[in-house]
Structures are given as C-alpha cells and as structure tokens.
Design brief:
0% of the residues lie in helices and 61% in strands. With 312 residues, the protein is mostly beta strands. The strands form seven sheets. Strands 21, 22, 23, 24 and 25 form a five-stranded antiparallel beta sheet that branches. A four-stranded antiparallel beta sheet has the order 1-2-3-4, with no helix packed on it.
C-alpha cells in the first residue's frame, strides 16, 4: 500500500512517501521524507519500520526549514536542520519501552520547539520546551493524563496544550494557557483541535469540530463561545485582520469505511464572534484542505487546487 503526503507551509515543505503492507514479523514498511526548498529537493531521509511500528508524524517550520519526525510508539523525536541533516534527538520514554497508548505532538517555532507527551501509564501529560539546538528549558505538568494538541503563538510567548481524562462516562478536559517560562496562566474547558492567533496576537480562537472559543491572549481567559452554524463540522479557521474566517464542511462516509468532505461554508466573524458574512462552495469534495492568507486574499487549498474565498 502506497501513500503520498505533502506538507507545504512556506518556502520549505515536506513530501512523504509511505509504503505499507507488512503484516508479520520479518516484514517491514518504509517511509521516504523529502525536504524541499521552493519546490527543489534539498535532502532525503529514508527509514524502514517493523510491521507493527506506526509511521512517524512530521512537523515543519516553512520559514526556517527545521522539521521534526515524531515516533510516539517508540517514544522519541528526531529534529532536522534546513539542510535535512539530523541535529539532535530525544527519547521521552526511554525507561518504559514501546507503547501504542502514547502521544507526542509538536509545536515548532523559529526559536524553540515544544513537545506535548503522555502515556497511559503516567499520571499527567507534560509539556517540554527546548531551544532549536536541543537545550531543554523547562517542563510543565498538565491537569490531566492524556495529551492532545499543542500550539505556539507567533511570538513564541504563549503555548496552548490540551489534556484530558476519561473514566467510564466522565470526560475531563482542558486547554492550558502556558507562558514562556512554563507557568500555566489559565485553563479553558475545551479540547481544541486547532488554535489560531489574531494578527496582533491579542486573541486566540480555539476550535473543535463543533465549537469556537475566543480567548484573550493577555488575560488567558475565555471571552465567548459559540457552536457551529451548519450540519457539518468545523475543519479550519484563519484570521484576516480583525475578522475570523471559519470553514465548516460536510462529512461524507461511504460504505467502504473511508470519509471525505464536501460543500464547505466559510463564515466571517467579528472579534466578538458575531457573524458578518458567509460564502459557500457547492459541488466540491476533498480529503483534506487548508485555509491560507496571501496578501489580502484568503484562499482554500484542496486536492492540488486553490480557490479565492475572501478578498479585501
């Protein structure tokens, strides 16, 4: 089985080839990671993985070219330079051995890298902050046992990290607002999927599939919370000056167990989360998409295509 995944967020991007199909001991899957600069290959990393080891997750800073490969099952990360050479690695679970019930997610800035780690056998999820060259700065304990997503503000002064705990029918969750010294300044009752900071860094919008929560980046407190506006789910969000653009898309689930999205709706909100306008795209389907700001234009990138959504 062959998968091709492309991550492109700036001058630097990653193309990842995943070749699977291994089903028993002695068989291997392989992964090929190509670092590109303005579309030209810089370096290639190839790995062979035993049949029962999941493929690594990848994260890249499109401006600096620094990227990370994360292997939660084995508990370690590899950090690579803009030339595609490994500069350091860290094993967060060296004494514990492999485990499928474990998370390592990454927030990658220009000057620092933050890791959110958790393991089902440990009492609390942790956030670890490192310099780009691998010097550890601090470690912070989150409220609950399992980690989820982590995000970093553009100025790298605020980290948002999600943690949760499930016991029978009870779910506890938190998005912790952490300052640059590793101190938790506030907790929001939400398990966010995406965090987007306003252009002036004064606000951050946290989204799940069903909710949007506006948080003050200064006070670290929730300002307002609203539900999705359509029968679909929230799939992306982006700031456009003083407006928050939220994408909601229908989820299509054929009988083969796969899924894809269709007919996205784009809703523009004020900083008070009051609806200003909305636009729709009909007869459009995609497996994944992303909103991007190019000058004064908000574009939707999907399936190798680009469509203009808002233009000031």
């Amino acid at each position: 089985m062959f998968f091709l995944v492309t991550f492109s967020y700036g001058q630097f991007s990653l193309t990842i080839d995943r070749i699977g199909g291994a089903k028993k001991a002695g068989e291997v899957n392989s992964i090929r990671v190509v670092l590109l600069h303005n579309g030209t290959a810089v370096n290639t990393i190839e790995r062979k993985l035993p049949f029962d080891v999941p493929f690594p997750a990848s994260y890249i800073n499109g401006t600096t070219g620094i990227f990370v490969l994360s292997y939660p099952f084995d508990g370690f990360v590899e950090v690579y330079s803009s030339t595609g050479n490994k500069i350091w690695e860290q094993n967060f679970f060296k004494e514990m051995g492999p485990n499928y019930e474990r998370t390592i997610t990454v927030a990658l800035g220009k000057n620092s890298i933050s890791f959110l780690t958790s393991d089902v056998h440990l009492p609390n999820a942790l956030v670890h902050k490192y310099t780009i060259d691998g010097a550890k700065q601090w470690e912070t304990v989150l409220p609950f046992s399992m980690g989820y997503e982590i995000a970093l503000s553009p100025d790298e002064q605020t980290i948002i990290a999600g943690s949760y705990f499930v016991l029978e029918d009870e779910v506890r969750q938190s998005s912790s607002m952490i300052d640059a010294q590793g101190i938790i300044m506030g907790n929001i009752d939400l398990l966010f999927r995406k965090a987007v900071f306003s252009d002036d860094d004064s606000f951050v919008a946290l989204t799940t599939g069903n909710e949007i929560v506006l948080v003050s980046n200064e006070s670290k407190k929730e300002i307002r919370r609203i539900r999705k506006q359509t029968s679909g789910i929230i799939t992306d969000a982006i700031w456009n000056d003083n407006e928050l653009i939220v994408q909601e898309s229908n989820v299509i689930t054929p009988n083969d167990g796969s899924f894809y999205y269709s007919n996205p709706v784009f809703i523009s909100y004020s900083k008070e989360l009051k609806e200003l306008s909305r636009k729709t795209m009909d007869d459009v389907t995609f497996k994944s998409s992303s909103l991007r700001k190019v000058g004064t234009v908000i574009e939707l990138n999907y399936e190798g295509k680009s469509s203009r959504i808002f233009d000031k």
